[in-house]
Amino acid sequence: MSVTPLVASETSLARTTSPSVSALISALDDLARVQRESAARIARDLDLPRAALGMLRMLDRCGSVQVSDIAAMLRVDLSVASRQVSHLVDDGLARRTVDDDDRRARTVELTEAGRHVMRRSDEIVHRISSELFASWTDDEIDEATQQVTRVTAAVADGLTTPTTPLAPADPATSKEHHTA
């Protein structure tokens, strides 16, 4: 699959960041777009909604977890996570259980059917990855992994400890500007 980078117009971001940072952000936008497209393709092949695939992957990696932890890991609202869990439970891919440590808490885990879907997903991802990165050396894959991990950590850290407001007020739309 060929990626056509989106051409960025001159935005406030482009005017206030270095060309290297702007290029990185553009590359990350492109990566996010093709990742969503790839996930949608895999989900279609498995006859699942894309959101279900992400939650199944997380449950496969983490094992039995509480819905609040799912929401935190997926960075979604608790109501969104709960609704997605309900769909997985209804489809027989996950089950709710009572937490042995805290009888009030409910945990979620994959069923055998959910684990089967994840094995099929892993096979598809492995096949696609083998094709996509066939010309890459192990060193190139290792370097890319390190850099993606570094970018992910920087962005995640920035989300949890923002130093400036994420959306500065626009003077043209602020309440102070519209006073009579």
Task: Please tell me about this protein's structure.
The protein has 180 residues and is mainly α. Helices cover 61% and strands 7% of the residues. The chain is built from seven helices and three strands, in the order H-H-H-E-H-H-E-E-H-H. Strands 1-3-2 form a three-stranded antiparallel sheet. Strand 2 and strand 3 form a beta hairpin. Helix 2 (19-45) packs across helix 3 (50-62), helix 3 (50-62) crosses helix 5 and helix 3 packs across helix 6 (112-132).
What is the structure about, briefly put?
By secondary structure, the chain is mostly helical. The protein is 61% helix and 7% strand. The chain is built from seven helices and three strands; from the N terminus they run αααβααββαα.
Q: Key terms for this structure?
A:
single chain, 180 residues, mainly alpha, 3-stranded antiparallel β-sheet, 7 helices, 3 strands, 7% strand, globular
Largest sheet: 3 strands, antiparallel
Taken in chain order, the helices and strands follow as HHHEHHEEHH
Overall pLDDT confidence: 84
Terminus-to-terminus distance = 54 Å
How large, in whole angstroms, is the Cα Rg? 21 Å
Q: Indicate the proportion of strand residues.
A: 5-15%
What portion of residues is helical? 55-70%
- The SS-based structural class is mainly alpha
The total count of helices amounts to 7
The counted number of beta strands is: 3
Shape: globular
Low-confidence stretches: 6-10
Query: What spatial order of strands do you see in the largest sheet?
Result: 1-3-2
